[in-house]
Amino acid sequence: MPSTHLTPSAYDEVGKEFLMRTGLEYTPKQVRNKWTKLKREYNTFKKLKLRETGGGWDFEKNTVKQDNEWWKKAKVVSSHAYVSHIRASIPDGPPKVRYIGRTGMTTQNVRAICDFDMHFTYASIGQPGSMHDTNVLYHAIEKDKPSFPHPPKGKYYLVDAGYPNRDGYLAPYKGERYHVPDFQRGAPPNTPKEKFNKIHSSKQNCIERTFGVWKMKWQILLKMPNYSFQTQMKIVAATMTLHNYVHLHDKDDIHFVRCE
């Protein structure tokens, strides 16, 4: 397997061959995303099997022999942490002001963690829309203190520039180019900080796509009915659970396929 991306024509050929063998048709962009994911897993495989990590090979199961602790440490970056605003229906009165976000609409903050497979693994729901991202994080850590999923030592959650850098949380450099399109339209990254930001942005894209699929599939999140706020929070939690269920059991789901 090549160590770099294929050429556009090569992605087309891979897609045609895959269609012929399986009957499933993917766009060149989808093929490229699948290739990138498989390449990451293949590199982990080579590290295990070909570089003699001591794990050995299980010929009965046709897989690598390693304990759970090794797999937990296999990747430095484990997941993504992200805050998104979800529309909230709040009755008129003094408390309503706290839920008015930057856009002037009433929202609730939803802080979520997702893995590289676009599954939600944690969510803190219901904080007022005016609350800063950092405060949402600290509130979640305190509120869920016994069960909050801190990243293991030596691993990190990718977070956006709204968070401070701290143990276990990896934010991009501020004041530098960040988004991948910035580099596509202009000069390539030419400083260590820009190179770091480009890689960070490309990885962070996973949780942005996860939230995009979630909101696209569950339109109720875009205009929340006038239920009690506790019910609105339950709707958010339920749609996240359904998001995971659909992704696990329906590989051809149209919304996930569009965002591959």
TrEMBL record:
GO MF: metal ion binding
Domain Myb/SANT-like: 3-73
Family matches, as Pfam families: DDE_Tnp_4, Myb_DNA-bind_3
Cofactor needs: a divalent metal cation
Annotated ranges, domain DDE Tnp4: 98-244
Keywords: Metal-binding
InterPro entries membership: HARBI1_dom (IPR027806), Myb/SANT-like_dom (IPR024752)
Keyword Metal-binding: yes
Highest taxon, organism lineage: Eukaryota
Protein name, as recorded: Myb/SANT-like domain-containing protein
Species whose genome carries this gene: Triticum urartu
